[in-house]
Amino acid sequence: MAHTSKPRRHRSGAVLRTAVGSAPAVAVLALALTLTACNADGDAAASPGGAHTAAAEPGAGTGGTAPGSTAAGTATSAKPVASKPAAKPVGGAGGAASPAPSATAAASAAPSPACDHKMPISPDEVAVYRYTPEGGSLSLIVRYGNWGCAPADSDGAPFVTVGKETYLPMDQAAYVTATNPVVESSENQHIGVQEFLDWLEAHPNSGLVFKYHLGADGAVDRLDEVFTP
């Protein structure tokens, strides 16, 4: 019995020495574990900051997008809005827009109204052909008419006679003015009644146009030649 107990005391001492000898190693291991835990805590504390930075970057352009937003949402918010293409200017070979025509140019380009071929009969203009002293009074033989349409190569509109010849009483003291071919002038000149009658006798059926005025007795008291081309 005594012999058997001795070896057991010997092993206990060995175990104690082994435990005492391993104490520094245990302390080193504990320190290592502590440092590892501290590092892990530091990494965990630093990770939210990094995640916040990564989340702030995509949210900066979208007004605060949460870190958990899906890739589809990010792609939708980042999609550019297509702008409407600008209207193509209308221009010539140089590409410059043609200026709008002014109101004056538009008015000048507008076609003139068509000439009315049905003008009314002039009430105070006649074509004079001849005269007659029959019945003891002076009368002009005339035809009434209206003004037609002026040809493109003409200086004025023609006087178009209508109806038959008729008599127009004339005062022998009437005031008469005439121009070419009665007198050599481009403007109306005052002439006497007899001078006018002499010209009519020398040039019958001339058809010169005159504007007349009737006096109180119904006879012509003024006669003015009207230019015709």
From TrEMBL:
Residues 1-40 form the signal peptide. The keyword Signal applies. It comes from the Bacteria. Keywords: Signal. Residues 44-59, 67-114 have a biased composition (Low complexity). Residues 44-116 are annotated as: Disordered. This is Lipoprotein. It comes from Streptomyces bungoensis.
